[in-house]
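Notes from hallway chat w/ T.B., transcribed later so I don't forget. T.B. wanted the structure written out for a chain they're using in a teaching module, and asked if we could keep both sequence and structure tokens in one place. Agreed to drop them here.
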Amino acid sequence: MKRIVVLGAGESGSGAAILAKEKGFDVFVSDCGTISDPYRALLDQNGVQWEDGKHSEELILNADEVIKSPGIPLTAPLIQKLQAQGTPIISEIEFAARYTHAKMICITGSNGKTTTTSLIFYILKQAGLNVGLAGNIGNSLALQVAHEDHDYYVIELSSFQLDNMYDFKADIAILLNITPDHLDRYDYKFQNYVDAKFRITRNQTKEDSFIYWAEDPVIDREMKKIQLGATLYPYGFTQPNPLPVGEDELALKGRHNVLNSMAATIAANVMGIKKEVIRESLMTFQGVPHRLQYVATVRGVRWINDSKATNVNSCWYALEAMTTPTVLILGGKDKGNDYSEIDELVKEKCHTLVFMGLHNEKLREHFGGFGLNIIDTDNLHDAIQGAYNAAREGDTVLLSPCCASFDLFKSYEDRGEQFMAAVRAL
């Protein structure tokens, strides 16, 4: 019996273990952290052996194949040992795709992935298709393949997931944009990150579709260097407008969301969705949590939760959408960020910056000479109170951190939830 070892027992790892068990493999799950109670229960219910708080090498290095959590870097010592002995290491998405003939609509990019993925899923649901939502959102693809039977999957893919995909093929691949992100995982070499994003086109043929933002300078440069097998669908403000509604009629506001809506519309067109369904969907879609999410108005000040802005480019789009004087809360786990991208918007839109992180040295060094009011904190309570005191009637307080959340929070969702609860308690 072939032995499958799953490293990491979060959403993707647990789902992969369940599918592997169902397909008759000898399955073992190992997580060096603590496996949460719901995933422990899921593994136990399905008779999957597991350990947490450690990696027992004698139980891992004998694997025929390893399914790795996206959060584990390729430089981890255990991964290096597995690679050295030639053990295949794949992603949950790669594994799950072996056991379904469903059409795969896959979305990646530095920003806008969740919004665009959710919008496409919404359009397909409105069209009455049997569709699942997977990847970085929704239930894991593997768990859905094990327990459900969808005809289509709309999948949000991070660069980490794409790193360990080899035979997988997207029927429709969408690349929204590429800006520096996660450089700490790519030897601080931007090209390595670019190459990871372009893996979404891997194995595509003329029967498949590649939808991409033609005006992104990085994508444009790469497209001139490489030859792709898919049918190409560029979009952007210099391309023919695919939208069946006016920009002012879109439910999602902001220039970046016009682009996201264009990408989703083209994907729906390729799939043959009726124009009236696309039109109605674009006008009624409600957006995603933690992305420019209105929280409350307190003392005449609007509070906006953009906790999902875990990189600088996401913050750029959030600031661009601001129409009032702004108090910006930023900070967290720096991923090799270049904050100069938002310099002009910070100077134009912000009168106060609130730093919220355990290590704010880089932020102080970069923004310290801007002549703005700076409030330096290392916790949410002080950040909220500082922003509250600094904001004037008619202002907006914007949480758009530019950074990962793992210094003070479990996730960007946890950061956003705590932020909203604290604001509503003011």
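Follow-up for T.B.: The two ends are 59 Å apart (CA to CA). Might be a good example for the class.
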